[in-house]
């Protein structure tokens, strides 16, 4: 009898926990779906997960493992390749879109969708930055801030500065022995973006700001837990320090302008201070700082990471490295003897190197997702996205789709030979009115770096089997611990 009673108790306990699990898994549905009325029956397939955390635990678990794509694989295997799935992400009911058609529509349809970044991200990047302002204000500020970093004339202004710093950095790294390649690249790209936006080259200021940005970025994709020890808490402290530093720069610039002390060149800070709307209203310090904080972050993170990966991929594939190097050598051969340094025309003649960069952008997918919000009930692929629900444009699924890119996880620049990506199938910088405005500058930086690297240096990774991290961006855990060697030095050692 006693043994039977124990078993009955255990069965009851097990039944209780199973029932509790089923109830908890339905809580988000009761909270967010039932109030939609008939629309709830037209929602995309999917799973809203557990109360409060939703699908965030599954997301973080996958992206902290060796297989980040396991997260979306759960949806596609369980619900089919519908290209659209419901979920609960960053504290809100959400819909993933994962095909070229659905991604393109969400990105370009400003009448149906508006920016929908999580409130935690808004706190970090800034409510007055591009991710938080209205369509009209974004259009005006984008036009103002994009012109200094895009187009032939603008890029020509920065080419010499970028090349000078790339040559200096590579020469320095070759004498340093062991370095964290990614860390040094980020310092380089941060120096460049600081020059473009603030005309600043103060080494201590740049290093301090770049360290704060590192902490900030770790919090962007983390759960918004504002407690000591958590990434989001550290990120909020980093933002506070960044704002204080940028405020001091703004104050100093205002003081110089008040005293009629002109800068060496008119930079983005000057442009933001001069701009006004149709009513003559100037931007506040908060607005200027949020725009600068966003640009300085995006302007060095992507360039640094993509440059690292392009270098690693080329070093791992000698046949592609040789082809890219031959193109750069041909550029040097065609150059007039009186010419010093690269020209923009030469950069644009780097056809194969451009394919290397595009392939790196596709394979790495630096920005794995962007956030939008439905402004009204939207019909898509036979389903309804309810008004107010977040829409997550999942770039990884597009860039790693084997039906679009055969053997998608294989680095192969030659896949771009005589190939033009169809609309929505290649989205490294987004699309539509909110497409990344600094894409031309980023590609210029990467091209100049690879030009000089291919001609004169090689990368020796000291821990080539190092595991990867995927949040906030894909990178080796050791930040690509390496040696940069001059090719001439390497040849001499081999001959000995």
UniProtKB/TrEMBL annotation:
InterPro entries: Cyt_P450 (IPR001128), Cyt_P450_CS (IPR017972), Cyt_P450_E_grp-I (IPR002401), Cyt_P450_sf (IPR036396). Keywords: Heme, Iron, Membrane, Metal-binding, Monooxygenase, Oxidoreductase, Transmembrane, Transmembrane helix. Pfam families: p450 (PF00067). The keyword Iron applies. It is found in: Membrane. It is a single-pass membrane protein. The chain crosses the membrane at residues 6-24. PANTHER family: CYTOCHROME P450 26, ENT-KAURENOIC ACID OXIDASE 2. Belongs to the cytochrome P450 family. This is Ent-kaurenoic acid oxidase. It comes from Hevea brasiliensis (Para rubber tree). The lineage of its organism: Eukaryota, Viridiplantae, Streptophyta, Embryophyta, Tracheophyta.
